[in-house]
């Protein structure tokens, strides 16, 4: 079955950096658009970034542009999210997601497969 396993979360001070990874198995990874979403307590899950199958296109929500970078390695079936200049408002559980036939890149409901999430906490 399809599995997406995130890693790399943790506690960091404001201004610091974290690098998240999401290892995929059970699917033809290079055929899937990969996305990162996050969900803070009491809030809806929100889009963070996405990357096309061959890394030709990347997409970011406005609040992370210039600070976060999404990338993928199709040979390793892994997608990454490098997060720099972290702010307390970036605190959330971060999820990776995969889908092969998206109509909207930023809509959680469009993604078929999800990981279990990894906690990112940014202290002020």
Would you write up a description of this structure?
The chain has 124 residues and is an all-beta fold. Helices cover 0% and strands 49% of the residues. The chain has strands at residues 3-7, 10-13, 18-25, 33-39, 46-51, 58-60, 68-73, 78-83, 92-99, 113-114, 118-123. Strands 2, 4, 5, 6, 9, 10 and 11 form a 7-stranded mixed beta sheet that branches. Strands 1-3-8-7 form a 4-stranded antiparallel beta sheet, with no helix packed on it. Strand 4 (33-39) and strand 5 (46-51) form a beta hairpin. The chain is globular and about 40 Å long. The model has no long low-confidence stretch (mean pLDDT 97).
What topology emerges from the helices and strands here?
Elements: E1 3-7, E2 10-13, E3 18-25, E4 33-39, E5 46-51, E6 58-60, E7 68-73, E8 78-83, E9 92-99, E10 113-114, E11 118-123
Parallel strand pairs: 2-11
Antiparallel strand pairs: 1-3, 3-8, 4-5, 4-9, 5-6, 7-8, 9-10, 9-11
